[in-house]
Inverse folding.
C-alpha cells in the first residue's frame, strides 16, 4: 500500500494538483494572515469596532437577504409550475433562455438597468409619480436592492424549480390525467412533494447569493442605512481607511458566511447552480380555462419583470454617444485592461481546474480502499471552499497585508487575476470533470501499458478530448472576470482601470449617459462570452 501511495505522488498529475491546491491555499491563507496580523497589531481597535453600527449592518445584511429570498423564491414556485403545466406556451423555450441571461449579466449592468427603469429619471418615473401623487424619489435603498436581487434570482430559482419538476415521471402525469385530477389535487399530490424537496436548496442558494452581494448594494444601497457587511468593508478601507473596523467587519462576514454554508449543508443545498435545462417531456395534464389564464398571466408578468431592465439597459445605452465612447482613450485603455486581465484569469482558472481534475482522477485510480485519502478529498472539493470566502473578503485581507509592504494599488493586476480565477474555478470544474473522467476511462489502461504520461499524454491523448471543455471553462471564467467589480473596487486606481471600475466612476461623477453606454458594451461582451460557453458545452455533450 505504501508503494502504491508513493507511485501516486510521483504521478505528474498529482504533483500538478498539489501545486494548484497550494496556490489556492496561499491566496486564501494570505488574506487571513493579513486580517490576523492587523487584528493583533490593533486588538483594542478591532474589538472596539464591534459597536452598534456593525451589528446594525449585519442585521441589514440578513434582513435584505431574507426579503430578497422570499420575493424571489415564492413567485418562482408558481412561475415554474405554470411553465411546466403549459409545455406548448408560445415562446416557452425562448422565455427559459431569456431567464438564463441574468446569470450572464454583470451585476453593475443590471443595476443600471434597474435605475434606467425605476430611477428618479427612469422610464417609469412619470407613471410612478402619478400613482404616488408626488415626485418619484427613485429606487435607491432597500427597495432598489430588492428589485435588483429579484431580477437576478427569480429567473435562477424558476429554472431550478422547472428542472426539479421535470424529474416527475411522465406516468404520474398520465395517471393524473386519466383520473381527472384537478389543479389543486395535482399540485398537492404530484408537484408539491418535488418542489418541497428542492425548496431548501434553492432558497439557501438565493439567500447565500444575496448575503454576499456586493455590487448591487454598492450601486443601489443609497447610504449607511442600506449597507451590507461587504460594502462596509469596502468603505472602511477605501474611504475611511480604518483597518481595525475592516478586520472586525471581515471577521463577522466570515463567521456569518460559514454559518450559512453550514445550515445549507444540513439541508443538502449546493452553492453552485446548474444553468442548463433539458427539453421538457410532454405532460398529460388537463388544464382548465381559468387556470390557463392565470398561469399565462404569471408567465407574462415574470417575463416583463425580467426583460424590463434588459430592455432599459439597451435603450439607455443606444441613446449614449457610443461612437465617441469607443474612440475615447480612457475607455480603450479600460477595455484593453479588462480583456487582458479577464483572459489571464480565464487561463489561470482553466489551468488550476485542470490540475485538480487530473489529480483527483489519478488518486482515485490508485486508491487501495473505499475510503478516500485527504489529498483526494481536497482535489475533489478544495475549489468549492473558495465560495465560502467572498472576493471582497479576500481582497480586504490582501489589502491590509500588502499595505505594510508596498503600494497596494501596484498589486491590482495580480490580485484581480488570481482572485477572479480562483472564484471561477468551481464553475470551470463542472465543465472539465465529466470530460476528463470519460477520457480517462477510455485511455487510462492503454496509457499505463504503453508508459505514456506527463506532457506527452496530455498533448496526444487528453488534449483532443478536452479542447472544447477547456474552451467552455475559459469562456465562462473570462465572462465572470470581465464583469467583476469586487476586487478592482478595492485595488483600482487611475493607473489600473477596468470597464466596470470606469463605469462606476462615471456613475459617481453623474455622467449617466456615458455610464449607460459603457454598461451596454460591457453587457454585450459578457453575454457573448456566456453564450459561447453554453454553445461549446452543448457541443461537448455526446
Amino acid at each position: 500500500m505504501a508503494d502504491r501511495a508513493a507511485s501516486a505522488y510521483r504521478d505528474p498529475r498529482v504533483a500538478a494538483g498539489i501545486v494548484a491546491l497550494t496556490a489556492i491555499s496561499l491566496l486564501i491563507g494570505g488574506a487571513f494572515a493579513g486580517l490576523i496580523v492587523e487584528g493583533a497589531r490593533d486588538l483594542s481597535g478591532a474589538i472596539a469596532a464591534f459597536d452598534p453600527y456593525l451589528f446594525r449592518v449585519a442585521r441589514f445584511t440578513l434582513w435584505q437577504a431574507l426579503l430578497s429570498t422570499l420575493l424571489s423564491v415564492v413567485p418562482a414556485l408558481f412561475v415554474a409550475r405554470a411553465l411546466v403545466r403549459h409545455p406548448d406556451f408560445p415562446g416557452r423555450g425562448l422565455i427559459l433562455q431569456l431567464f438564463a441571461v441574468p446569470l450572464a449579466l454583470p451585476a453593475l449592468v443590471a443595476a443600471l438597468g434597474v435605475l434606467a427603469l425605476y430611477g428618479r429619471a427612469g422610464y417609469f418615473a412619470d407613471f410612478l409619480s402619478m400613482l404616488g401623487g408626488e415626485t418619484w424619489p427613485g429606487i435607491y435603498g432597500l427597495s432598489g436592492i430588492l428589485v435588483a436581487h429579484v431580477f437576478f434570482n427569480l429567473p435562477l430559482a424558476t429554472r431550478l424549480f422547472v428542472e426539479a419538476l421535470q424529474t416527475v415521471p411522465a406516468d404520474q402525469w398520465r395517471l393524473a390525467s386519466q383520473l381527472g385530477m384537478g389543479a389543486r389535487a395535482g399540485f398537492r399530490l404530484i408537484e408539491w412533494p418535488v418542489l418541497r424537496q428542492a425548496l431548501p436548496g434553492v432558497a439557501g442558494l438565493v439567500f447565500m447569493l444575496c448575503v454576499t452581494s456586493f455590487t448591487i448594494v454598492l450601486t443601489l444601497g443609497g447610504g449607511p442605512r442600506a449597507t451590507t457587511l461587504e460594502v462596509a468593508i469596502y468603505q472602511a478601507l477605501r474611504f475611511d481607511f480604518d483597518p481595525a473596523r475592516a478586520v472586525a467587519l471581515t471577521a463577522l462576514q466570515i463567521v456569518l458566511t460559514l454559518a450559512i454554508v453550514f445550515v445549507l449543508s444540513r439541508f443538502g443545498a449546493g452553492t453552485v447552480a446548474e444553468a442548463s435545462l433539458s427539453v421538457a417531456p410532454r405532460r398529460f395534464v388537463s388544464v382548465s380555462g381559468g387556470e390557463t389564464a392565470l398561469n399565462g398571466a404569471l408567465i407574462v408578468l415574470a417575463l416583463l419583470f425580467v426583460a424590463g431592465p434588459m430592455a432599459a439597459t439597451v435603450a439607455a445605452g443606444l441613446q449614449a454617444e457610443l461612437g465617441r465612447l469607443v474612440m475615447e482613450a480612457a475607455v480603450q485603455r479600460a477595455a484593453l485592461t479588462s480583456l487582458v486581465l479577464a483572459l489571464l484569469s480565464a487561463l489561470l482558472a482553466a489551468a488550476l481546474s485542470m490540475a485538480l481534475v487530473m489529480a483527483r482522477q489519478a488518486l482515485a485510480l490508485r486508491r487501495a480502499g473505499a475510503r478516500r485519502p485527504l489529498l483526494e478529498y481536497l482535489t475533489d472539493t478544495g475549489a468549492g471552499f473558495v465560495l465560502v470566502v467572498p472576493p471582497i473578503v479576500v481582497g480586504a485581507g490582501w489589502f491590509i497585508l500588502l499595505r505594510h509592504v508596498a503600494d497596494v494599488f501596484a498589486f491590482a493586476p495580480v490580485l484581480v487575476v488570481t482572485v477572479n480565477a480562483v472564484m471561477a474555478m468551481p464553475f470551470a470544474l463542472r465543465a472539465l470533470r465529466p470530460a476528463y473522467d470519460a477520457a480517462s476511462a477510455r485511455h487510462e489502461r492503454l496509457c499505463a501499458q504503453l508508459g505514456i504520461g506527463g506532457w506527452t499524454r496530455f498533448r496526444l491523448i487528453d488534449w483532443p478530448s478536452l479542447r472544447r471543455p477547456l474552451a467552455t471553462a475559459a469562456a465562462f471564467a473570462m465572462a465572470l472576470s470581465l464583469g467583476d467589480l469586487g476586487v478592482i473596487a478595492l485595488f483600482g486606481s487611475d493607473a489600473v482601470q477596468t470597464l466596470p471600475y470606469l463605469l462606476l466612476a462615471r456613475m459617481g461623477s453623474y455622467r449617466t449617459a456615458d455610464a449607460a453606454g459603457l454598461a451596454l458594451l460591457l453587457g454585450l461582451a459578457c453575454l457573448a462570452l456566456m453564450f459561447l460557453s453554453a454553445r461549446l458545452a452543448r457541443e461537448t455533450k455526446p
